[in-house]
Structures are given as structure tokens and as C-alpha cells.
Amino acid sequence: MILRPLVMTLVLFAVTLSRSEAQAWGPKPSLRVTTWSTQPARPMLPVLDFPEPGLDDTASYQGYQTRFYRDSKQNTVQVYLEPKGGRVVTLWADAANESAGFTVRDAAGRAARLSWAARAAAVNDTVSSRSIEYRLVADASYIELGGFLLGSMRVERDYQYAKRHLQPLTLPPFRVAEESLLVADVARLEPAERDRHLAILRAASVEVLRSRLEPTLTAPRLDTIGTVKVERPSLDARNRLVLELGVDLRRVKVRVTGETVSFRTRPGSSISFAVRVSTDAAPLTPLPRNEIFNPAFLKFLRAAEEASDNAANLRYRRMERQVRGVELLSSKEKLMAGLPNF
Asked: What is the pTM of this model?
């Protein structure tokens, strides 16, 4: 079998729309500030990292960076830094096809220059949830974060298709029209029929259902480590996706204003902050390469690995990268695919 090259600097999305992703996500996230908690976690190096010197033309990426990790259940997590709009997106290839994104701007309203603060991410899980944490550095002494969008990968895709990641952070939150209309339609139903629909959505009232579309904010605590928490349940409250942004309050001042958050440090200094995304969506069952490729191909790959000359070694590195890419996209439940995002 001949495999065509995979362009892995892509946004992942599901070929088949899973039942979990089909659950309606409300259009607005919930923001609140809490203390950054210390949880046991283990480091996880990226499976793939783009652009890769020696294999990629780094200039053609125009500042775009992406990494692919495995979470505690070996599900694929992609993190990418989109430089034109200052967009940071975490894509989780699990049963819910999840996405958590935000935009970072500098004091002049331009896209902030972001870079990785460390190569490894930290993964963790509990009985009911999984998390991944990574650290970023902004080359600015003041940054503003907004455009928070949590839900399905397809919502993030539509957000960027609409060029919302390039627009001011002061715009109203991005809304999925069908979801807002669903809540309005439920509200117009006759009482008995409305109650039946509310029960399906696990909401005691229309007000409870509507509250899942609105953000809630609390004031920052004056602790050593401060965390801005952006939280969204699915509209039927089956799943919950949480984005946390952590800073050292001894070095960085935090302010929440409306739908945006600002970090400020000493003039001339950069801002380091942690990003943690947590989910309680069901994980997928990853497929190892020996369940994807036939023995003849794997034997060919092993032989290529033993090559000693530079040209052959480069060819092996490219093949190994594409094999890892296929592994990242493959699970027993479904196959993921790629969608170019620039």
C-alpha cells in the first residue's frame, strides 16, 4: 500500500460527526478566576513538532507553529500558534472532537508574538477527566486575551473562516446561530412540551438552559499563582470543557474586563503563562502502527531506519513522521482527517 504524504501542520477534524460532538454547544464561555491548583502530572514530549528544521522550509510557515501530543489515554492533542491573529488553539481528538481557543494581542492591539516556554507538556487524569498543560511566552510586557471559544473543532474552524480571529477583541462573543435558535425555540414551546425538551437537555428551566450560554466572572484572588478559568458545558450538560490560564502573581498583574483578560508585567519584560485544558469527554481507543500497516511496510520502514547515508536518513525521517501522523489520526472508533488552516 502506498501512502500519500500527510500535511500534519493541520487542524484536526472528524471525518464522521460523533454523537458527542453533535451535542449542542452554547455560544458563549464561562469565565472565572481561581487559584492555580497543583495536580500530579507527568511530562509528555510532542509526537510531532512543526516546522522541523532539516525537514521543513521554516520560512514558508510564516511563524505558524504546531505540536502534537498524546494525553493520558493516548488520545491526540494538537496545539497550534497562529501568528497573524495571535490565536492559540488546543484541539482534542477524542469522542467529542473538542477545541479550546483564544486570541492574544499586545498593547497596540496587534497579534502578540508567542513562543513555547518548554518542549514538554504535562498530562494528567482523574476518575472523570483528563487534562493537558503547556507553557507559552509572550514577547510583550502587556497582553490582552479574548475571543475565548470552547466546544467543537468545527466551531473553531468556522470562527477562523469568518476571520473573527483577526478582528478586535471587543466584538460580541461568537455565536453559533443554530444553538441560539434552539434555546429560543424551546422557550416558545407549550409548557408540557417545553418541560419534555428541558428534561432531555438536563435543564430545570429555560433560565438554566439559557445560563449555559452566558459567561460568569469572579474577581481574581490574591494568591501567588492566579488562574483565569474559562469554562463551558455542552448545552445538554453532558460534557464540560475547561481552559485555565495561569500566571505568577508576584510578577504579573491580572485583570478581567468583560470578555477579556489582561496580563501586565514590568516594562521590557516578557510574560510567561501556563495553559491547561481539561475535559470529561470520553476518550478514543488509539491504534498502534502494527494494526494500521501491514508487516511488509513495517519491515521496509525498519530497513530504512538502518540507512547510514544522509539522503537515506532524511528519507527515513520523512517516512517516520508520516507514519506517526497516521497513528495520531487513527483510533478504533473513527479516523480523523486534516484541514489546512493557512
From this structure: 0.85
